[in-house]
Amino acid sequence: MINKLVEKIRKTGAPVVVGLDPMLGYIPEHIQKAAFEQYGETLEGAAEAVWQFNKGIVDAVWDLIPAVKPQIAMYEQFGIPGLEAYKKTVDYCHSRDLVVIGDVKRGDIGSTSAAYAAGHLGKVQVGGSRLSAFGVDFATVNPYLGSDGVKPFMDVCREEKKGLFILVKTSNPSSGEFQDRLTDGRPLYEWVGEQTARWGEELMGEEYSYVGAVVGATYPEMGKALRRIMPRTFILVPGYGAQGGKGADLVHFFNEDGLGAIVNSSRGIIAAWKQEKYAGFGPENYADASRKAVEDMIEDISGALKER
User: Fold this and answer.
1) Domain boundaries, the chain
2) Using one digit for the tens of pLDDT, what is the confidence trace for 218-235?
3) What pLDDT, on the 0 to 100 scale, is given for residue 272?
4) What pLDDT sits at residue 220?
5) What homologous superfamily is domain 2-307 in, according to CATH?
6) Which residues are catalytic?
7) Quick one: what percent of the chain has pLDDT higher than 90?
8) Which own/partner pairs from 255-261 qualify as long-range (CB within 8 Å, at least 24 positions apart)?
9) Sign of torsion, CA 281 285 286 292?
10) Could you give the CA distance from residue 181 to residue 232 in angstroms, rounded to a whole number?
């Protein structure tokens, strides 16, 4: 799957992933009203609003981008109906030939980790059948439990040709409480980056590994160091836009070939219609606002890469 991701980034010229992380506050009133008229102000109604909102955005941006990243928590909060909306979103994105990164941040050991891997990336045995549950192409994984927590995911990735993004240095302000702690004279995130690169050597694609890393856009100097440590690791970069990252901050996440990283923006795109810059589109044309936000993001990152 890493080969497909690289191919689609080359084809679109957009190292961009749209985070499909819907909150009801992002969803225009007319969409919520239609969903509530059909299902009432229920979990089912909320899930329907989320699904229709997502569909509108995907229809508006699918031709510009290589991938999407739905954050499962935004769906889980609505219970089983929310998970059904998550699955419908994943399947619809696949119908548009988009790579789907399931932002699930799983991390456990043994049979539990194997079950997470089967459910999100692989197949589960049901009698004489092997069935796909969520069927995403990549999953985010917390490496805190060590190799015992990561290897079961790698086994499924090897079998299914799927991929991982390991949390190495996250974009949130308090990430340094643990990730920046010195261990044998070096910050912990560097040790995690080195181990991620070693795991990646076991699962290589044509140019990059199936085992990628998450490194926040809000820490560009750390990203520069981790790029050296993980030269053949694809980096998923959250924190663009709403969290403060911008194109000029991101050049060190990329290799000289212009590849090696894909930058995520979530509310900066899906809630673009609520920003002053795109307010002229209005709630009825929220998806057009999202498309313009994607175009602006691509221009920002591409321009920064050309100038470096």
Assistant:
1) 2-307
2) 888 888 899 999 999 999
3) 97
4) 84
5) Aldolase class I (3.20.20.70)
6) 105
7) 87
8) 255/227, 255/231, 258/15, 258/305, 259/6, 259/9, 259/10, 259/15, 259/207, 259/208, 259/234, 260/208, 260/227, 260/231, 260/233, 260/234, 260/235, 261/15, 261/234, 261/235, 261/236, 261/237
9) negative
10) 25
Distance CA 214, CA 193 (A): 10
Nearest 5°: CA angle at 202, between 197 and 203?
A: 90
Over the stretch 84-94, which tens digit does the pLDDT of each residue have?
999 999 999 99
Would you list the DSSP string of the chain?
A: -HHHHHHHHHHHT--EEEEE---GGGS-HHHHHHHHHHH-SSHHHHHHHHHHHHHHHHHHHTTT-SEEEEBTHHHHTTHHHHHHHHHHHHHHHHHTT-EEEEEEEE---HHHHHHHHHHHTS-EEETTEEE-SS--SEEEE--TTTHHHHHHHHHHHHHHT-EEEEEEE-SSGGGHHHHT-EETTEEHHHHHHHHHHHHHHTSB-SSSBSEEEEE-TT-HHHHHHHHHH-TT--EEE--BSTTSB-HHHHGGGS-TTS-SEEEEESHHHHTGGGSGGGGGGTGGGHHHHHHHHHHHHHHHHHHHHHH-
Average pLDDT over residues 126-131: 96
Whether the per-residue pLDDT at 133 is higher than 60: the answer is yes
| Mean pLDDT computed over 238-248 | 73
